[in-house]
Amino acid sequence: MREGFKSAAVYALIVAVFIWIYYASVEANYFQNKVNAMVAKGMGEGQPESVIRPRMERFFTPFNYTTITFFTMLIAGAFNALLLGALHHKVLRRFTR
After folding, report:
1. End-to-end alpha carbon distance in the chain
2. pLDDT of residue 3
3. What is the mean pLDDT of the chain?
4. Per-residue b/e over 6-41, b at no fewer than 16 CB within 10 Å?
5. Segment 86-90 long-range contacts (CB within 8 Å, at least 24 positions apart)
6. Count of the separate structural domains present in the chain
């Protein structure tokens, strides 16, 4: 179980670094375009831009996106490691005896 979690953690870290580099340098305008679209949608619903834009610019950043992705993948990897560890301990050990 521990080795499965280590592998999942390393994989999550590698993917998070790749995502951060991608959105920080390759697709640098992605989050600005997303913020502009969300502000336009909010203004269409009657909310002032001075309220919407700072909130969206604070949330939609490469760092936040990378952090959310990293922890989501880490949790999914931990769940998979736990599930496979339990399967191995409860089921597969009976067949190896």
Report:
1. 20
2. 81
3. 90
4. eebbeebeeebeebbeebeeeeeeebeeebeebbee
5. none
6. 1
